[in-house]
Amino acid sequence: MTDIFDVSDRIVLVTGGLGQIGAAFVRELHARGARVAVASRTADAERLRSVFPDIADSDRLLPVAIDIVSKESVNAGLDEIERQWGAAPDAVINNAGIDTQPSAPPEVSGPFEDFPLEVFREVVDVNLVGTFIVTQAAGSRMRAAGRPGSIINVGSIYGMVSPVQDIYAYKEEQTGVPFVKPVAYSAAKSGLYNLTRYCATYWGRQGIRVNTLTPSGVGRDTQDATFQKNYTDRIPVGRMADPTDFNGAAVFLLSDASSYMTGANLVIDGGWTAW
Questions:
Q1: Nearest partner of 239 among 223, 219, 213, judged by Cα
Q2: pLDDT of residue 101
């Protein structure tokens, strides 16, 4: 019986593949038999071994140094994948991005009226423009090869709805310095949804599917207890996400199980956006 969730032997590029969610994607796809190109600005054999000590020597894992805001760097990384594995990626997870954490300094987490233009541009450049560059480059190669493909753009609940600023209010009470969840991340992530729809309709007849996967916040050891409680109180299932909570959705979107799905947004948020 054919496994419609099979991703074995597929070449998958994961940007931000050394990060918390990205590393979980890498491990899951490798365990399922895929060949995974682990992309990051700092990706090399040493970094791969530090994050994946048990599987770093696998011939189905490839570190690829890519700066996603550089078209030249992205194409050089794709060239390297083709040199090593003889083909362009069958699939891409556009996971790389930057966000502002509650521990950020006040100059980048203050009121909207004072938010620095240069920081806004940087966040949009990485989260939106970088995703555009990778999607354009990888999708072009998929089309030129005449092969079907799947591209996942990782969105955010804060790209779908506005941040709930109340959960961050405790920072001012504790430190006297207000923390405002900044506008840049929300603006950048919201742009991904129509980038996804555009590419889905543009490449639909070529068999290149493009979807968005929307996660909610992931728990980290570096988050303070008050933030985690405030955030968790907003989630119907009563906990923050684990990095592995999005693996099933990624496998679904990359596999033939979602062969009739494109231009869609798969929300895995513990119910956050159901309020």
A1: 219
A2: 77
The residue annotated as part of the active site, out of 185, 193, 231, 260, is: 185
Q: Do residues 83 and 240 lie in contact, with contact meaning Cβ atoms separated by under 8 Å?
A: no
Q: How confident is the model at residue 104 (pLDDT cuts 50, 70, 90)?
A: confident
What string of DSSP letters covers 97-128? -----TTS-GGGSS-GGG--HHHHHHHHIIII
Angle among Cα 269, 186, 105 to the nearest 5 degrees reads 105
Beta strands in the chain (DSSP E): 11-15, 35-40, 61-65, 91-94, 149-154, 208-215, 265-268
pLDDT digits (tens, 9 = 90+) for 221-272: 989 999 999 999 999 999 999 999 999 999 999 999 999 999 999 999 999 9
Distance CA 82, CA 65 (A): 14
Q: How many beta carbons lie within 10 A of that of residue 203, not counting itself?
A: 21
Distance CA 3, CA 98 (A): 35
Per-residue model confidence as pLDDT tens digits over 179-191: 899 999 999 999 9
What distance in Å separates the CA atoms of residue 216 and residue 218, rounded to the nearest whole number?
Answer: 7
Q: Is 185 a catalytic residue?
A: yes
